[in-house]
Amino acid sequence: MKSPLQAMRDLLAEDERYKIEAYQFIRESLQYAHENLALDDEEEGSPGEKPNPRHVTGQQLCEACRLYATEQYGYLAKIVLANWGIHATSDFGELVYNLIRIEQMRKSDADRREDFDDVYSFDDAFEPEFEFVAKDED
Fold it and tell me: HSE of 59 in the Cβ direction (CA atoms, 13 Å)?
């Protein structure tokens, strides 16, 4: 059985679209979602089992990625993500499903790779918002 480190090395070698920072960003965004987004209550397992952690849907993770990137990188968020190979929300899905494939993330039966497609436009999501304020004349 491969160690998680070796599994990640193999993944980076076989899928060169994304840098390791992109995978770390996905993990941090998932943590951000758990800490900052209003998610459903924890799902109950069978009697005697530990409750499953709150599930984050593909759309919720995309929103967490947007908020976290903006918080961390401000107006440069889109450029930073592009440097790691991330250009659209579908890239978040590719990253997540790569991590699932190497058993570094899990999915529910209801989750689909397509849940990440076209959640929002990067051009709109990371466009700086400027507010113009008229100067008061005294």
Answer: 6
Instruction: DSSP for 14-45, please give it.
Output: H-TTS-HHHHHHHHHHHHHHHHHS--PPPBP-
| 63, 112, 116 from 58: Cα distances, Å | 9, 8, 5
| Terminal-to-terminal C-alpha distance of the chain | 74
Task: For residue range 24-33, list pLDDT tens digits in order.
Answer: 999 999 999 9
- Residue 104 CB coordination number (10 Å): 16
Residue 19 CB neighbour total at 10 angstroms: 14
What's the predicted TM-score (pTM) here? 0.83
What pLDDT, in 10s, does the model give residues 62-117? 999 999 999 999 999 999 999 999 999 999 999 999 999 999 999 999 999 999 99
C-alpha distances in angstroms, 43 versus 51, 54, 57, 106, 115? 6, 6, 13, 15, 20
